[in-house]
Amino acid sequence: MDYRNKHILAPMVRVGTLPFRLMAAEYGADITYGEEIIDHKMLKCVRRANDSLGTTDFIEKGTNDVVFRTCPEEKNRVVFQMGTANAVRALTTAQMVCMDVAAIDINMGCPKSFSLSGGMGAALLTKPELIHDILTTLRRNLDLPVTCKIRLLKTSQETVELARRIERIGVAALAVHGRRVADRPRDPAQWNEIANVAAAVSIPVIANGDVFEYEDFDRIKQATGAASAMVARGALWNASIFDAGGKSPWEEAKREYVRKSILWDNDIKSTKHTLKEMIIHHSCLELPEGKAVIKSASYADLARLYGEEDYYNFVTEYRQKTKSR
């Protein structure tokens, strides 16, 4: 996979599932990261072909929950992002999905308590030996590209030193979120510190932070010297940010997400979470739309809410006919 001059969908928990990734790709995303999945969770899964959807599903034994779903259409661009704090578990997990994805990424930037308490995410930033162990183990045993995503450390020099150490391991690219662990999303991303990393290493650096319009892809690359740019919230709020021709109206992008979620039978809780995040940015959950999303118990409910009943009925009828053959 080439990591230069790419517009990339960032990993987003409960958002970056198959429907959202495919929608982003249709709008123009070159590479799409899945949501972070914890190694412990994946190791409880079995791989199954889903003939009715044309997908490959990783199903948690005992619950039958879909932990990760992908399809051949995205194989050459989807990145499986993993939360881990153990090299052996990381490798075992990566080997489970290596035939179905384009690359493996290790999350080293998540500041959420569930990641930190498990020694994962941003907790790895202070454990360079463990970082080396995990990435080296993956590099030596996988044919796929291996990457990682970090945040800024306490000082710019510390971030640069970690980036150089990661580069020496032989990763294919390094994504840098221009915020520190203590920073909040409203705090401005430090593009200048991403620039320090990009200037210090020769591998592609992927700049992440404060990309909200299509033009910001070039702006952040110019400002940082990064090879590529990654967007999270800007894509969540309107996935058509990837469209060089300009954003689609928010309502249109939202309905497209609902259609994709119906088509790919996305977990209803995940779909509702993503819709609520979209609404919170553009409107308010206390208004009728937000309340209706919260109350929705099925895709039939969401289809009625967004005027997609005909599409829902078509997909439902098609699936029934397919099953009866």
List key phrases describing it.
325 residues; alpha/beta; TIM Barrel; 2 domains; three-stranded antiparallel sheet; 14 helices; 44% helix; globular; flavoprotein
Query: Terminal Cα separation, in Å?
Result: 39 Å
Strand-and-helix sequence, N→C? EHEEHEEEEHEHHEHEHEHEHHHHHH
Name given to the CATH architecture of the largest domain: Alpha-Beta Barrel
Contiguous helical run count: 14
Task: Give, in spatial order, the strands making up the sheet with the most strands.
Answer: 1-2-7-8-9-10-11-12
Low-confidence stretches: none
Radius of gyration over C-alpha positions, nearest whole angstrom = 20 Å
Q: In the CATH hierarchy, what is the superfamily of the largest domain?
A: Aldolase class I
Q: Using the alpha-carbon principal axes, give the shape.
A: globular
Number of strands: 12
CATH class of the largest domain: Alpha Beta
Instruction: Provide mean pLDDT, rounded.
Output: 96
Q: Tell me the number of structural domains.
A: 2
**What percent of residues adopt helix (DSSP H or I)?**
40-55%
Into which percentage range does the β-strand content fall? 15-25%
